[in-house]
Design goal:
Layout: H1 20-36, H2 58-65, H3 70-90, E1 99-100, H4 107-122, H5 127-130, H6 135-138, H7 143-151, E2 158-161, E3 164-167, H8 175-184, E4 196-199
Parallel strand pairs: 3-4
Antiparallel strand pairs: 1-4, 2-3
């Protein structure tokens, strides 16, 4: 090969294609769980100590600070509270970097979901318009409705582990199926965040 045949040399590794609909589904699921897990003025699940997605909590503050993006900002804050709790529980495992959870899907997927979130935020559309699955959030807290939403993702068997609820089987390759299993793994309801997760093989 001559020095001029550079077109045969791969210079950039392209990211594997993931449908935008799957990214949106993963983001929607994160936001719904983040909202449901808040303490909230309506007595939500209380898995993390935040009260951002509520009229007299974060909404009141962010309406004044960020009048055009406050709806996204409160969801982003709740998602960050959930992500931190997810990370804290994962650290109880002997090898937390190998755990795949709803808020730790792997660097590349996490990056794509964050990019999508920022893109949607810049569009200045209401969250429930951009992500119709968020209708459950705008409808207000209803414990039974939330657990019906979880049940709508199917079932996932799991066993207790130091890092939360270890789901049986291998993690699905397709993002939408992986997210469905992780959501299903939230059941049965517990007082603490159960951290449904898969263990990535070495």
């Amino acid at each position: 090969m001559s020095l001029f045949e550079v077109e045969d040399i791969p210079t950039v590794t392209e990211r594997a294609p993931v449908p935008t609909s799957d990214i949106d589904r993963a983001l929607t699921s994160q936001l719904v769980v983040a909202w449901a897990g808040e303490t909230g003025e309506g007595g939500r699940l209380g898995w993390w100590r935040s009260d951002l997605v509520s009229e007299y909590g974060g909404e009141d503050l962010f309406r004044r600070l960020l009048p055009s993006t406050w709806r996204w900002a409160v969801l982003q804050g709740a998602r960050e509270a959930a992500r931190r709790m997810d990370s804290e529980v994962r650290r109880q495992d002997h090898d937390p970097d190998r755990l795949i959870s709803l808020f730790n899907l792997g660097f590349e997927l996490d990056e794509r979901i964050e990019e999508r979130f920022q893109d949607l935020k810049r569009l200045s559309r209401a969250p429930e318009e951009a992500l119709p699955g968020l209708a459950i959030v705008s409808g207000g807290w209803d414990r039974n409705r939330f657990w019906d939403w979880v049940a709508g993702h199917g079932t996932a068997e799991g066993t207790a582990s130091p890092g939360g609820r270890l789901l049986k089987g291998s993690p699905p390759i397709a993002l939408d199926q992986l997210v469905r299993k992780l959501i299903a793994g939230l059941a049965p309801e517990g007082e603490r965040y159960p951290l449904p997760h898969f263990r990535r093989m070495p």
